[in-house]
Structures are given as C-alpha cells and as structure tokens.
Design brief:
about 1050 residues, alpha/beta, Rossmann fold, 23 strands
C-alpha cells in the first residue's frame, strides 16, 4: 500500500463497518483517494478484488478511480486481479449484454450516442404532421428528446403519458400528444435499426432485474461491496436499478456532494443523495449513516470561506469546508469595470501578470462562464494580448473565426440559400470580397428569380463547367470587376468540390476537406505563436466534435449536425460532459457546467451582473405550461419537487419554481469558486451585451456582492457611473496606442461624426494638411466612380418562371402571385427537402458516381404535400423497373420560350428502352396526388422535348409518367403523348402564359388550400377550409 496519512474523517470512513453508508464529500476533499483506501481495507479484510464493484458517472472518472485503486493496491495484490469499475450506463449495459434478450434487447444491439439520437429524432419529426408544434424552429429537436429522456429517467413509457390526457385535451395536451407521437416514432426507429440509447440501458435493465428476481439475486451475489461515485448526479431510474439489486442492507457506499447537484435539468434528482439512508437502509431497517469529508486539499482558506458563504445561501451549513494546515494563503479578488470590453481586457492583463510575475503556466489558468454568450469578449481580449486560449465549450467555439469559417461552409453545403454563410465565406480572408463587391451580384440575382433565390445558386447556373470560359459577359453584370469575378470563380469551384464530397464522405472527412481546400492550415501556420496555438487547438476540438457524428445506417449526418450547432448558437444550450482539455499550455475558457471535476491554480469568473450569474431563467420547468416537461404525476421523485398542481395559478407555480431555480444557480456558483487553488478573481461590468449593448445598467449580482463582502477580499477597484458605450465590439488595434489618435481609431471616428471638421483640424495641428486634402480628394473621386444600381435584366415583355411555378398557377393564380410576384414569407418545406434527398439518391444510382449538379428545390421537383419516407421511397425505386435501366437523360435541365413565358425546369429522367421511344419520368417521393394541376408538369416537359430543349434528337413516340415512390409500393400514372395530347399541352401552357401576362391572379379555392403557406392571408381559402 502506498504511503498515506488519512485525516480523522477519512480514517472513520476507511475503517467503518461493512454496510450501507453515505459519504458527504465536499469539493476537493479527496473522495477518490478515500474510496481507494476503503476498497483496500476491505481487501485486507478478506474480500477478493473481483468481488468489489465501483460505479461512477463518466469514463474519465472511472479511469481515474481505477488508476487510484491500482496504485493503492500495487503492493497488496497481484496486478492481474482488479476491481470491477464501470460507469452507471456501462454497468447497465453489462447486465443487458448477458441477460438482455429476456426484455427484448438482443446481444448485437448497438448503443447510440446522443448525437446519433438527435439524428433519429430529426427523422422522427419529419415523419409526422403537426397542428401545434412549430417544427421549423431549430430547437425543436430538444423537445421530444427531453421528454423521451424524462420518461426513461422515471421508468415510464409514452403510452402512460398518453393515458393521462383529458377527454377534451386543451392546446397543452394537443401539443404534448404531438411530441409523444415523435417519441413513439423515435422508439420504433430504434427498434427497426436494432439500437438503444443511454436511457434504454437503465430502463431495460430495471425491467430485467424487477421482472426476474432470481437474476437480480445472481447479480447481487457476485459482489461483496459496491461503491457509487458522484451519486448526486444520478437520476431516479438509476437509483431504482441499484436499489433493486443492492438494497436491504447490502454493503453499498454512495459518495457525493449535494451542493454540486448542478444537472437537475438533465434528470439528476436531489432526492437520491438526500434520501440515500431511506433508500438503502441497514439490515434492521434503520437509516444508513452519513460520514462527512470537509478537509479540502485543493484550495486556500480564503477561497473556502467564499465557498461556505455560497453554501449558506442554500441553507444551514453544519460541515464547513476547511483548508489543510500550512497551505499557502489564497487570494480572492473582485473588480467592477465600466463595460464588458474593459472587463475582458482587465482579465487578460491579470492573466498576463500571473504568468509573467508569478510563473503560473497558461494551462493552470481558466476563465469560467455561466453562459456561452460571454466567452467571445474574453477570448478576443486574451488573443489581443498574445495569450494562447483553448475554448472548451461548443457554444463559444463557434464564435472563433477559424471555426466559424468552417461552420459557414457546412451551413452552405447543407442549405444553398443560407446567404449569411455565403457572405461570411466571400468576405473572409481567403476571398476578401466586400459588400461593395457583392452588391451588384446580389441586386442582379434579385431581378433574376429564375436563377434561384441565392447567390451561390445563381453561380451554379451562371458559371459553365469550364471556369476558364466564365467572364463578365456570362454574368451579364458589368459592375463586377476582374478581381471579384476571379474570387467568385474560385469560391464556386471550391463549393462544387465540397458539395461532391458531402455526398460521398462522412462528416469528419468533409470537415478535413474544407480545411484543406480553403487553405485553413497554412493560414494558421502563418499566425503569431499564441494565436497559432489557439487556432490549432480550437480547430482540433471542432474536428473531435465532428468525428462523433459518424453516419448511422449510411445516412448523411450533415443536416442533423448543422441543426445541432445552430441550436448551440441560438439557444446556448448547456453541454453535458466535463470538458476534455488537450493538456497544451493554453488558458481554458469554458462554462461552469463543463468545469466540474477540474481544477486550476487561478480561476476567473466574469460577467457577474444581476440576472446573469446567478441567472434568472426565462423558461421555468413547469409541466403544466410546457408540453415537453414530464408531469409530476409520473416523476419518481415527485415528493421532493415543488408542490405544483394543474389548477394552481401560473404565477404561484412560477414563484415556487423560481426558488428552486435560484438554489440551482447557487450550486453552480459553488462549483465555480471551488475550482481554484490559489487565485480566484470575480469580475463584472455595468454594461454588457452581445449583438448590442443592454439598455439598462447592470448592477453587481448577489454572487459578486458575496465575494466583495468577504473580510479578506482584495478589492481591485470599481468604475462608477460608466457611460453607456455605443458598441461592445473590440477594435482590432485595441492595445496598440497611436500617437496621432490618443483615444484610438474608434474614438477618432466618433469625434469626426460629432464634428466633420475635427479630422481636418487634427491634420492641420500635426502638419499633414496637404496629405490629408489629397487623401480626401482621392476618396471623393472613388465615390463618384461607384456604379449606379444595375437595372433589371431581361427581355421586355417576357416573364421567366419555372415548371413548379406553372403548376402553382394552375392550382391557384393567387398562390402564384404571392409566391412569385408579391412574395410573402413561406414556411421551410421539409417535404420538399425530403424530395430533393430522394432525387439525389436516384441520380447517384443512375450515374454511378457522385453528381456535380446541385440546384434549387423547385428545379428538382414540384414540392410534395404529404409525408414521405426518404429511405422507404428510395427502396421502392431500387425495386422498380427503373432501377436497372440506364436513363438516356438524368436530372437534365432545360429552358424554352412559350409565348411570353421563358420556362425553365429539370426533368428527373428520360428512358429509351427501345430506339426512338422515350418515356419521361418524374419521380415523387410521396403518394399519388389528387391535384389535377399536376399534369402541367408533364405537359411542360413534353413541350420542352418537342421544341428541342434536350438537343436535336427527337423521339418517334413519347410517354409521360409520374412514378410515386411513397407508401411502400410503386404507383405509376402514365399519359400517352400523341398529337392530340401535345395540342392540349400547348394550349394549357398558352392559357397559363396569358393569365400571368394579363395579371389574372384571382384565387381558386380547392383542397390545396389546406396545405397553402398563404392561407392566413386569403379570405377565400379560409372560407373553403372552414366548410
């Protein structure tokens, strides 16, 4: 056994009688070492190492416990004999691997990570229809995921929740039932794929041990003692599994700290640790004893004094944390700045001083944030001061320029209409275009709707396969200079290469190709040393994240990945796992949640203003208001929850939940302050904000005041009466003084705005008036030479439109008007997106290669109106007569003129099974439509072919076929294209052209009104639907 001198508290635990016991271990009190020596003591008393089970929460914690036990037992037992150590989920998985078939979990069942689960939820959402859920919101995936997790955490099934619905459900229950429907489809998809998520492991293991008591006894008899680490983070289902196996006086030890229960929002139950003695009583039925650990081996007493004060906000403290005798004094300091930029600069200066004056390594310092939104300001300040940083939170990581560029490419590849992503790429360091460069193209595209509704889609149409042929004449935008044209050619070429790769490689390889093709690594290599190290670390972290998103069942995971990242940006959702730092010498930036279990010499906690930390939650966990929350009636720990009822006034429920939320915030604060060993600096500022400065002054938060009022606190000053800044954006040259502009360039610009003569007078004072006048003259001349806004381009009297728009007009002229003439906002169409996915798969199959053509949704297909299943539709295609025959044309674009209409489109496939006999085929991923206007699509295709739009070859005979792939079976609707049919087709197109040309846009109510995006604007449609 290694040399070890236990404290009195540790000795009491190590030598305690072998029975149920709870260890209340304060932060930094050596719980892992104590557990290891308790295990060694049991082995000394005759237990075999293999008959001792240790269970902890994360793989990292399990490895740490295993290493510590191995170290303690090094001289005591054969190294080949080891204690069995698992995570909580790993222990359940081991049980199911052995006995799982008894509860329907086969031995080859694959365990999926939360990232895979999100992908399945994405599919489950697309498989339904909704009246109450807004499925276009990025955060929608979290709603069913949260409900599914809550059900599993409380050993409940979806049908139990459905059974609770009232006979006449209100909107809350209608919405909840739609969410339950998503959960049901998610469960069905898991069963179909033969996979299980983490919640399934605990749920099915519970069903196994409770349904087969003899098996529970067999498992129990394998062990002499069980140790549970981080028990405060367990959920009710994990507790019930352990209680079924190891209750009734079995020697089980739970170690935890109730004050570090910060994961309630993901299922952790305060009741588990608080009621351990009742859940796991002694053999005589009495409550299991509790042993404290209060001697902190990490921090100085000054830091622990603040930690104890934070704990008092949660209630009476009977066991305050104490520092080891002789430990170096710690420093707790506070600083209140005028605004967030000044606060960030102060932190950077303090970090620099600790490094240079105290010799603290960069990696021994961390900045801990309550919210992701506050990371960027501090990151920018640290990098401006030449300090290497490692951002360990995804929400903060996406704000780093190098990562944001990669993210922009992923967004553009997922959605060509994502204009902010395109603009970020175009204006980035590789292409260096400005808004002035892009403005002519943007204006031109706006006047050319037939080329697509985004700039990248327009470039798809305008740049020929051989980029060397591209010129300003091709673009027909004479305001684009040669440099802009060259940049757009290269940007488009990169986009096409990456789009091809996106259809044939997994996500991690796609990200690597983005970094390679965009020259990211050479740019990083050219940075100064600190910035280079920061950029490299943060790109590696993003690569690690992408690697976790491998495809499941061959499906592309890009869209689910982008959805997840967008949610992190917009919702600042907390990440679950402890940060995995690289070990490189860099300052760590992360949220408090991700810092749990970590420690540093110096810790900074910024943004301590009112309602930020402690945070004031905008959304309460009220199950009687939010349909994705599990009603308390199904919660296993309901006796410890606020006494909410459905008939209670909402304000009363909110008041009860507010106190619960505040307690959670103080526990988060306790975790934050106990991460520091020697230096803890708490800061805040009067003015904060992200996109804009807050309208009201920020005041110090209760946490800041708590630190500021400590007897031994070091007050580093407070900026009083700070003026509200116009912006909190950092100047790139901040920190580099300019003798000409003592207040910086930003201050000089503001002075000029306030007094247009200011710059002139400054130039006179420093003797550069002639140079100044010449510069002003040159700039004015440049302004005079700027081009006027381009006129709309096109043939007078001719209207350009797509085949999709023709079908829209034939369905309802008013719908066409709101779609193409006076455009109104439309909901994103998941059905149309699924149709595009099916067409891409068919194109790949037909070509036998990855396609280069990727165009707008309306070119691929008339959008579907009903649900479709991408995988099922493609499977039907593979089994159809079309799959084994090579098409003469596949996804072939065309354009022709009919009267005053210039019509563009794209034919899915043209087959020539016999010479001269062509069959036009339009694939639909859904079921047959009863909309008579759909025939216009085939009519336009046939007219295009007869007019030679596909080349000089003309068929002897033609057929036109709709091939519906939905519903699990192929349905064909064919038309024989003879002379009479062609005459009717031309007449129909003429009729539509005349109507559009004469502005005949009267509404035509029909069944199509039910799925119309513009129904809320259309009285006639509303009347029809209400019948």
């Amino acid at each position: 056994m290694t040399s070890f001198s236990p404290s009195d508290e540790q000795h009491a635990i190590i030598s305690a009688p072998n029975g149920p016991m709870r260890i209340s271990a304060g932060a930094g009190t050596g719980k892992t070492t104590t557990l290891a020596h308790r295990i060694a003591h049991l082995i000394d008393d005759g237990s075999d190492p293999e008959r001792i089970l240790g269970v902890t929460f994360t793989n990292k914690a399990a490895a740490e416990l295993a290493d510590r036990v191995r170290e303690v037992l090094a001289d005591q037992v054969d190294p080949a004999r080891t204690v069995e150590i698992h995570t909580y989920h790993g222990f359940a998985h081991q049980i199911l691997a052995e006995f799982g078939p008894l509860v329907g979990v086969e031995r080859d069942t694959q365990l999926i990570t939360p990232t895979f689960a999100r992908q399945l939820f994405h599919d489950a959402i697309e498989g339904g229809t909704y009246r109450f859920l807004n499925i276009t919101w990025n955060g929608i995936l979290d709603r069913p995921a949260r409900l599914a997790a809550a059900l599993a955490d409380n050993l409940a099934e979806p049908d139990q929740l459905t059974a609770m619905a009232p006979a006449e459900p209100d909107e809350l229950w209608e919405t909840r039932q739609e969410i339950v429907g998503i959960v049901d489809r998610y469960e069905q998809e898991k069963r179909r794929l033969g996979v299980a998520d983490f919640g399934d492991l605990i749920l099915r293991a519970n069903q196994l041990v409770s349904g087969y008591p003899d098996l529970a006894t067999r498992i129990r008899e394998r062990y002499d003692a069980v140790f549970l680490d981080e028990y405060q983070d367990t959920n009710p289902a994990q507790r019930e599994l352990l209680r079924t196996l190891f209750g009734g006086g079995f020697p089980i030890t739970a170690v935890g700290d109730a004050d570090q229960t910060i994961y309630e929002w993901r299922g952790a139950s305060l009741a588990n640790f608080a009621d351990f003695g009742e859940h796991f009583p002694l053999t005589d039925g009495s409550s299991a004893p509790t042993y404290p650990l209060t001697l902190n081996r990490r921090s100085g007493q000054e830091i622990l004094d603040l930690a104890n004060q934070v704990r008092r906000e949660l209630g009476e403290v009977n066991d305050p944390l104490r520092a080891l005798e002789g430990v170096e004094p710690a420093v707790v300091a506070v600083r209140w700045e005028g605004n967030a930029v000044e606060e960030a600069d102060f932190i950077a200066e303090q970090v620099l001083a600790l490094h240079e004056e105290q010799g603290v390594a960069w990696k021994e310092m961390a900045v801990l944030f309550r919210k992701n939104k506050d990371i960027e300001a501090v990151r920018g300040a640290l990098e401006d001061h030449g300090i290497p940083v490692e951002v360990a939170n995804l929400g903060g990581l996406l704000g780093i320029p190098e990562v944001a560029d990669v993210f922009a490419w992923l967004r553009l590849l997922d959605d060509p209409s994502d204009e902010p992503a395109f603009i970020r790429i175009a204006m980035g360091s590789r292409y260096r275009l400005g808004m002035r460069d892009l403005k002519p193209l943007s204006q031109w595209v706006r006047h050319q709707p037939e080329l697509g509704r985004s700039m990248i889609e327009a470039l798809d149409q305008l740049i020929p396969p051989d980029p060397d042929q591209f010129s300003e004449t091709d673009l027909r935008v004479d305001q684009l200079d040669e440099r802009t044209v060259d940049a757009l050619i290269h940007l488009h070429a990169t986009y096409r290469q990456l789009l091809e790769a996106a259809q044939g490689v997994n996500l991690i390889e796609l990200v690597r190709r983005i970094l390679s093709l965009t020259g990211a690594w050479p740019e990083v290599a050219a940075m100064p040393a600190a910035a280079r190290q920061s950029a490299r670390l943060n790109l590696y972290r993003f690569l690690d994240l992408a690697e976790e998103w491998s495809p499941l069942e061959g499906r592309p995971s890009l869209r689910a990945f982008v959805d997840y990242l967008m949610l992190m940006v917009e919702e600042q959702t907390e990440e679950l796992d402890t940060a995995r730092l690289s070990g490189e010498d860099a300052v760590a930036l992360l949220t408090v949640h991700r810092s749990k279990g970590l420690e540093w010499d110096a810790v900074f906690v910024p943004a301590l203003y009112e309602k930020n930390f402690p945070s004031s939650s905008m959304v309460s966990d009220d199950p009687y208001k939010h349909p994705y929350m599990l009603p308390y009636e199904l919660r296993l720990d309901r006796h410890t929850l606020p006494p909410l009822t459905a008939d209670m006034p909402e304000k009363d429920r909110k008041d009860l939940l507010r106190q619960r939320d505040l307690d959670q915030e103080w526990r988060i604060a306790y975790v934050a302050v106990t991460r520091a060993r020697r230096w803890l600096t708490m800061t805040g500022a009067t003015w904060h904000g992200t996109t804009e400065v807050r309208k009201t002054e920020g005041k110090p938060s209760p946490l800041f005041d708590l630190a500021a009022n400590l007897p031994n606190v070091v007050d580093l000053g407070r900026v009083e009466d700070a003026p509200r800044p116009e912006t909190l954006r950092r100047s790139p040259l901040a920190g580099a003084p300019d003798p000409t502009f003592p207040n910086g360039w930003d201050g000089a610009l503001r002075s000029t705005l306030a007094d247009p003569k200011w710059a002139e007078s400054q130039a006179t004072q420093i003797g550069v008036r002639a140079t100044y006048d010449q510069a002003v003259s040159d700039f004015q001349q440049m302004l005079f030479e700027l081009p006027d806004e381009p006129d709309a381009i096109g043939i007078v009297g001719q209207t350009s439109t797509s085949v999709t728009s023709l079908v829209t007009y034939a369905t309802c002229p008013k719908r066409y008007y709101w779609s193409e003439v006076d455009r109104l906002p439309r909901r994103p169409s998941s059905a149309a997106r699924r149709g595009v996915d099916v067409h891409r798969k068919i194109e790949l199959r037909q070509r036998g290669a990855v396609p280069f053509d990727d165009v707008t949704d309306d070119l691929y297909d008339v959008p579907e109106t009903g649900p479709s299943d991408v995988r099922g539709a493609f499977r039907v295609f593979e089994e159809s007569r079309f799959s084994d025959h090579a098409a003469r044309f596949i996804e072939v674009p065309f354009e022709f003129v009919h009267g005053d209409l210039r019509i563009r489109g794209r034919i899915d496939a043209v087959y020539e099974n016999e010479p001269g006999r062509w069959e036009i085929v339009d694939f639909k991923s859904g079921r047959p439509s009863d909309n008579p206007a759909m025939i216009v699509q085939l009519q336009a295709y046939a007219v295009a072919i007869r007019q030679g739009s596909l080349g000089p070859a003309n068929p002897v005979e033609m057929r036109a076929t709709f091939a519906y792939l939905g519903g699990g079976a192929l349905t064909e609707i064919s038309e024989n294209v003879d002379d009479d049919w062609m005459e009717r087709a031309r007449d129909r197109l003429t009729e539509i052209a005349t109507g559009i040309g004469s502005a005949a846009f009267e509404p035509a109510p029909s069944e199509a009104c039910h799925g119309c995006d513009f129904l809320r604007f259309c009285p006639e449609g509303k009347t029809y639907v209400a019948r």
